[in-house]
Fold DNA repair protein RadA.
Amino acid sequence: MAKLKTKFACTDCGTESPKWLGKCPGCGAWNTMVEEKETVVKTQGQGSSLIQTKEKPLSIIHIDSGQEPRIETALQELNRVLGGGVVPGSLILVGGDPGIGKSTLLLQTSHALAVKGLTVLYISGEESVKQTRLRADRLGALTDTLYVLCETNMEQINEAIESVQPDFLVIDSIQTVYEPSVSSAPGSVSQVRECTAHFMRVAKVRGIATVLVGHVTKEGAIAGPRLLEHMVDCVLYFEGERHHSYRLLRAVKNRFGSTNEIGIFEMGEAGLREVSNPSELFLSERPLGVSGSTVVASMEGTRPVLVELQALVATTNFPSPRRMSTGIDHNRLSLIIAVLEKRMGMFLQTQDAYLNVAGGVKLDEPAVDLAVAVCIASSFRDAPTRPFDVVFGEIGLTGEVRAVSRAEQRVKEAQKLGFKRIIMPEKSLKGWSPPTGIEIIGVETVAQALAAALG
Ligand code: TYD
Ligand code: MG
């Protein structure tokens, strides 16, 4: 008989303790220790397949540095986020709120890969085979090399992998599968950890590209121990607002590419559609000729995206004014407001300031500073901005406008979308010649930028 043991494990970092603790000794988080019952199993042989490999250490000079082969999916936006396609043998974790479209995205991807001739195994622990078929009907995802299994027991899943020999494997979701030798409930820290470690080994040894779907907690992190994110090769988040149809796919970790690319999709009747020109989407509801609205050219990875910023500055009723921002770091907003107060003499201490990035996008590069300043000043003075202006540039604490990267690409994107004027850092104009047909105003200070934009 195996011995039954009770222990407590931290849901954030996986630290274990024989008794309950209010504060995790591993990561210092409060109230994250949960009880887990576990049968002690002899772990003899576990991981031995890895230990038994006969590989010898190689001099770094002799290691083949050839590009990893990539399997390109039919979804260009997904390829972009992954850094050019799925790497065989990689383990990818996809997180997102319930109902955001994770299963839809993966079923579409599975179908597209099966059409290319790959064998795909889609394991659903949440929906029945019938439900998956119904969804596939709707998506038009019917191929004979796309296999579906509704199963949560790891032993059965292993058998299925053995018999189907897939090239691409989807586990929807990691919180529903369980290893029978570990007696804690599915979704518990030890189950999630064990199962992920197992899929990692299978992926590496067999060269199967594996995607795990992960649930997210209320705070927005992938449920389960934090070390889950350390174990996998890529962590992708699928996000978006429930009331909007577009969805963003963002990499927060990628061992095979950069993490600042985003993929944009639109959820429709027949599943997810790629949005190849996001600027058009983000500008589609823009009001023209009003105060407090500016268009910024921001880089999302290697791609310039034009986004509308909106500000509302209104007299406060509180002793200390409110500063609220969505899509832009709150501290960055405070800094820009401080610069406007000190350098431009704007009396904003008695004003509430709200800032919103239209479309639910998050902008975290300093190049959006100047546009934030322009739209706050525009709302404060109630002076409309010109509808065909694009603004970008970083602001320094003395009120100077600093150079930003990839100015040329930003200008070209603005021109492509029919904008007439660009207000940008003078210092970013060196080394390239602006295209004809678009007016460029190089500025060195915030004062010059406001004079040009609102004058
Ligand atoms: P789903 O992929 O089940 O989400 P998740 O796996 O992340 O929980 O997506 C479910 C939502 O997507 C549901 O609200 C219906 C919507 N949807 C469409 O609008 N069109 C479609 O073609 C499909 C398949 C789903
Ligand atoms: Mg689902």
Q: What stands out?
A: The longest strand covers residues 303-315. The pocket of magnesium ion (ligand 2) is lined by residues 102-103, 126, 172 (CB under 6 Å).
